[in-house]
Amino acid sequence: MQKHELQNATATDRLSRSGYCKKHGEYVEAGRKLFGHEIWFGCAKCEEEERKRQAELDKLEEARGRAWSYRVLFGEWLPKAFDLPLESFEVVDAAMGDAYCIAEEYVRNFHRYRSEGRGLFFTGTAGTGKTKLACGVLKSLFPDVVGCYVTLSDLGDRVRQTWRSASGESAPFTEAQLLNAVYRAPLLVFDEIGTIAKPQDGELLFKVINTRYSNLLPTIGISNLSLTELCSLYSDRLSRRLEERSRTVVFDWTPWQERHQQNENGLFQEGER
Ligand SMILES: Nc1ncnc2c1ncn2[C@@H]1O[C@H](COP(=O)(O)OP(=O)(O)O)[C@@H](O)[C@H]1O
Ligand SMILES: [Mg+2]
Ligand SMILES: [Zn+2]
């Protein structure tokens, strides 16, 4: 009997009436009666939209915080000239189109590649847009994924800076913080591998690549050298690590600036004729 009364009480507590939302039109508004007061909940679709908007804002704020932590360690999240989405990579021939499509597909299916620890390896002539395309990947994954960008020599210099700071000068970060960032970033763009052959950087390079490899974390490695050349410069252990879970993209077209100079000269000559 008591139970029956309780059920009735609950039933009468719930209210509903027809409502009108400027955005969503007519709807059934839910409400509740509490100690004799009526409370109305408004448009459920508006509420859901507001909840989603708030979740997006929270995600953005968290992502900005992560980018900021890379900035503290490496000066910038991305180099200023490359802080642009993937679409800013202009495609003017088929080979560039292939490279762009690989990068675009990588972004689209990043969650799968991430779980498999699969990365990319960009190799080829200087000035062909390797850094630009890789930074485009990072930028396009933001804010879902906040990856880290660093060049090998910059990482090496910063690590050495923390050693010096032990004897007086203070660096705003520790070696452990720097290494943790590159070891654990959900995606690392590791640029200029092998450009400057500092022997001490070879060890650091292998440590970073190998740690990420062991933890199934994806890396985009960038080098002017091929895997074979890297192998003879550093070690075959390194090139095997890079090769096993990375798709190699060869940037073998005319460097961007040269191509533009050629175009400008071409136009100029035409104008003269
Ligand atoms: N496809 C492209 N579209 C627009 N700009 C490009 C493209 N490729 C290269 N660039 C520009 O050319 C310059 C060299 O590119 P960069 O990414 O530094 O080459 P790499 O890393 O291969 O040496 C940069 O200023 C870059 O913005
Ligand atoms: Mg570059
Ligand atoms: Zn509404």
Automatic annotation (TrEMBL):
Keywords: ATP-binding, Nucleotide-binding. One of its GO terms (molecular function) is ATP binding. The keyword Phosphoprotein does not apply. It comes from the Bacteria. This is ATP-binding protein. Residues 116-248 form the AAA+ ATPase domain. It holds the Pfam family IstB_IS21.
